[in-house]
Write a structure and sequence with these properties.
Blueprint (H helix, E strand, L loop, with lengths): L15 H13 L5 H23 L2
Helix pairs in contact: 1-2
């Protein structure tokens, strides 16, 4: 049985300056879009935080 892949959407509020910085970073890192850059960067940071907490609780 195939698992159904669900996707979720979220939004963030940023200033024009912050948005410009995100777009620039996405271009410099050759991401398809700045939203993909934000998603992947947030996931990397989330993984670090979760791993740190799990290590602390061992």
């Amino acid at each position: 049985m195939d698992k159904e892949i669900k996707t979720y959407s979220m939004s963030i509020r940023v200033s024009q300056e912050e948005l410009d910085k995100l777009k620039r970073a996405a271009r410099l890192e050759a991401y398809a879009s700045y939203s993909e850059f934000v998603r992947r960067t947030a996931l990397l940071e989330a993984s670090k935080i979760v791993e740190k907490e799990e290590a602390k609780n061992r």
